[in-house]
Amino acid sequence: MSRDPASMTGLWHGLYSYPERLRPVFFVATLISHGSGFSGRTQEAAAGAEGTPLALGAAVAGREGGGTVEFTKTYEGAWQHTVLYAGRLSADRTEIEGAWTIPGIWSGRFLMRRGEMAEEAELRRAWEEA
Questions:
Q1: Which pTM was predicted?
Q2: 86: which of 41, 45, 62, 97 is 20 to 30 A away, CA to CA?
């Protein structure tokens, strides 16, 4: 499948960190562009009470322009809350790096890479080099 390099549409693999010494969380985002805006969904694995594995889904809505990307991620279900993301889009439009925040509570950084080749090990190496 060919993709329009000017579009945000596609499969993105990413990870985000917490300000504490917790391990980064990996996620997958499916985005669809509409003009300078985009929307989509994310899926990620998390640990619930007593380490019980959870699958978390969230809706994403944002915009991009001038090399910057901003979006909100709104989790669904019992963990419902919104996270704000802001980052820089690489010149080849295949990577976004920036910061996330839950205003007044927590913040951290994130990295996203477009495409099926952005596997967890590759993301982890890029993360550690940054």
A1: 0.84
A2: 45
